[in-house]
Please model this.
Amino acid sequence: MSDLPITQRSVMTLFSDSKSPSSHRVRLMAKEKDIPLEIIEVDTSEGMPEDLLELNPYGTLPTLVDRDLVLYDPQVIVEYLDERFPHPPLLSVDPISKARSRQMLRQIEQEWYALIDTITQSDDEKEVKTARRDLQERLIQMIPVFEHQPYFMNEEYSLVDVSLAVLMWRLPYLGIELPKSAKAVKDYSDKVLAREVFAESLSDDELDMREVI
Model:
């Protein structure tokens, strides 16, 4: 790791939570685009490091530092990276398709990832059970979308697929089992998780969520 202050380093720095889907999404996106990225895994159980709090007063993860630019909104981070490193593009240039993708990204972040947080962090057994059922039902409701095109709402792999891949990886860990009628979801999951760079994006904690890749 460089001795230079983070805001003076030539390589971008990502403060990452090793278990968070939001942080994993950024790590996976960086692998898909072959973006040079220095990753600092933060152990949230020990509190936030001072250098992070100096950069991000909210102390939230992920936080991306690109010289004097500090980003800590997860969706802003991934959209910035897609524009900063345009190849391969992970968001459509078509305004309508792009708007639909951005809306779906927001839904995944605010609703689906929030359910993951409840399942993994809540001490209320009833709340966990409800969140597990809600996430399962949302995936089942989306079966027609998974069936319609090779990727989610798209003919090509996109940022929405990046966001869903990290969720798919966590399903067994979350105790979510899909019915046989959700074959399209299972096939989709197998496809996005089989991408070579996916394994490279996993933290040690995420590797532990499954016995094998």
User: Anything to note?
Assistant: The mean pLDDT is 94. The two ends are 28 Å apart (CA to CA).
